[in-house]
Amino acid sequence: MTDGQVHILHGVGASAGIAIGQAVVIDMRKIERYPKLKIPEDRVEDELRRFDEALALSQKQVAEAISALEAHNVIREHVLILEAHLLMLKDPALVDRVRTLIATEFINAEWALKRAIEEIEKAMDAVDDAYLRSRVADAAFVAERLMRNLTGRKTGSFHHAHNSIIVAHDLSPADTAMLNKGMVLGFATDVGGMTSHTAIIAHSLEIPAVVGLENASSVVNPGDTIILDGISGVLIVNPSESQILEYQNRARSYLSMEIKLKEKAKEPAVTRDGKRIVVKGNLEFKEEVKTVLDHGAEGIGLYRTEFLYLVRKDIPTEEDHFEAYRSVVQAVHPYNTVIRTLDLGGDKFYSALNTIFSERNPVMGLRAIRLCLKETGIFKTQLKGILRASHYGDTSIMFPMISGIDELHQAKEILEETKRELKIQGIPFDEDIRVGIMVEVPSAAVIADLLAKEVDFFSLGTNDLIQYSLAIDRGNEFVNYLYEPLHPAVLRLIKFTVDAAHNAGIEVSMCGEMAGREIYTPILLGMGIDSLSTNAYAISHVKEMARKINIEKCRKIVEHLFEMRKASEIYEFMTREIMENTHDLFDLA
Amino acid sequence: MDYAEMRQRRVTITNKLGLHARAAALFTKQASKFSSKVEVIKDHLRVNGKSIMELLTIAGIQGTEITIRAEGSDEELAVETLVNLVKDGFGER
């Protein structure tokens, strides 16, 4: 604990920006230190009352959280989990045990609680199913709340006011769902990397985040004034007056830089040595087109089409597809729009059809192009919609999850069939529509030279490429530390894909998250990627980074990186390189 | 204990996620509606069916066979109700 002292913590800036506010600590980790006292027999009654009060308070907090969630219409699953917490707070295995320990062992409530929980945890340790085990953490969470209420420390999870900066060990999607987003200025977490859930949420909310702070959630007290610097990855606890002033100035210059970037967003990005870099936008809903273009997108590098399938109970018709795509390609024209065909997993798809469908490992199951090649009728309906839209503006088709030549041939054959049908019907479309694939399955990257001869372009989908090639599930907190975009294997796959594309004379783009992080921009451009496609908010940043660099130098950097053996080495090198050479990008002095 | 006076039935956990927190919560809630004593038995483990924490300790993953046992005035209905809850996969899917 900081006891009002100034304290500076270093982590990784996962979302840029500066925030000054009050800490709201969401700490679900164990309280390691608690009073451990023997009590005289005549204090037993008092101690029992103290425990009952903490219990009642805990129950009240959870009940309030449940009604708050119900009022906010958040998904039912969160409410059910909290209802389980409430039941645990009424559970005889916990409550009666603590009371018995206080009354018979003459120990204080904290000690009794700790012992009761240790007994329960020991019993739960026998559980060897990963999913059940992670749910068992709920018991620890409940015990933690009780302990906090006993020791008078606040939990704070469900109460936050304006100017809150959320400090936590880690934030799960469930945690962020409970936050009142208008009131949160930023996130600081002990764990996580630049691509953690926290980082993604912060980016989408356009607020700063610092992750990997190691012990922020135990160092920071609830209510502490803190400065969060998402640019250099620093957290200052209980800052001095002068530090606050300094950071207020920095926040102002950052803001003005943001405004300047937005103003320059529509200007082309040309590197110092004169190479024009095309930055496009990723799109999900047609309503986003204006935002993406306003942020400076020169085309749509990825138009996801899953929403068409998810917002309705039945399968979308050809007209549904056509209407959605036409309005986008028209708005984006003369720029190009890359429409990606259905990338859903079978689970979501078939549940929409009310068909029971379950796979042990859906990520590697019947999804995306595999599903389309199985349900060819549905695939053709979508292709017809895309082809018809291509008459109204520059359009390309992209197939997701291609893992080999056969799949590509089949998909292209169905596309040709669809074209023939449209011709017979006399419906106009772009007969030379370009066809590309997502390179996101490692096997596709490895045979990129073979695939490149059969398509008009590649688009690297880094999120899946990283997950698949490193064999880690990003959503699994036990292994997500292995999600390393700079892993030498990932960089090699990307480089091989880019070279294969260029040897075949086709263009290669990138539309994964890596494309939207400035730290990767010099590497990606140095490897020769032709265009980057990213979320609206990152476009101006990536463009500005491209303006600061020299492609020749980036090529040399890439050569140097390929001699390095570890992601951490590469990351450190890049951070240093960027700080030294593009410091004016974040010139906040 | 006189087992003859108790009701008990074996049932297999069918839902994909097993007896996790949410499912255990549903079970506990249902069990608590009955005045009978409710026990859940898996192998040599026997836990209080009205305690969510104890239920979590039996590691009831998909495919686990458990015995639900009740003793009291409404034991028959209790066993029937709880067996059906497990059979229905706790309303999942």
Descriptive account of the structure:
With 589 residues, chain A is of the alpha/beta class. Chain A has 3 domains: 1-27 and 155-261, Glucose Oxidase, domain 1 (3-Layer(bba) Sandwich), CATH 3.50.30; 29-151, Orthogonal Bundle (Enzyme I, Chain A, domain 2), CATH 1.10.274; 265-550, TIM Barrel (Alpha-Beta Barrel). In chain A, 49% of the residues lie in helices and 14% in strands. Chain A is built from 24 helices and 17 strands. The two termini of chain A are 31 Å apart. Chain B is an alpha+beta fold and 93 residues long. Chain B has a single domain (3-91), classed as Histidine-containing Protein, Chain: A, CATH 3.30.1340. Helices cover 33% and strands 25% of the residues of chain B. In chain B, strands 1-4-2-3 form a 4-stranded antiparallel beta sheet. Chain B is globular. Classes of the chains: A alpha/beta (589), B alpha+beta (93). The A-B interface holds A 77, 80-81, 83-84, 87-88, 91-94, 120, 123-124, 126-129, 131-132, 135-136, 138-139, 356, 358 and B 16-22, 24-25, 28-29, 48, 50-54, 56-57, 59-61, 93.
Assign the CATH superfamily of the largest domain in chain A: Phosphoenolpyruvate-binding domains
Give the number of DSSP strands of chain A.
17
Return the domain count of chain B.
1
CATH architecture of the largest domain in chain A: Alpha-Beta Barrel
Can you count the helices of chain B? 3
Largest sheet of chain B: 4 strands, antiparallel
Give the averaged pLDDT of chain A, no decimals.
Answer: 85
Broad shape of chain A: globular
CATH class of chain B: Alpha Beta
> What is the CA-atom radius of gyration of chain A, in angstroms?
27 Å
Q: Which fold name is given in CATH as the topology of the largest domain in chain A?
A: TIM Barrel
Q: Largest beta sheet of chain A, briefly?
A: 8 strands, mixed
- What is the 3D form of chain B? globular
* Alpha-carbon distance between the two ends of chain A: 31 Å
On the 0 to 100 scale, the average pLDDT of chain B is 86
- How much of the sequence lies in strands of chain B comes to 15-25%
Q: What's the number of domains of chain A?
A: 3
Order of helices and strands of chain B: EHEEHEH
* Parts with pLDDT < 50 across at least 5 consecutive residues of chain B: none
Give the helix proportion of chain B (percent range).
25-40%
SS field, number of helical segments of chain A = 24
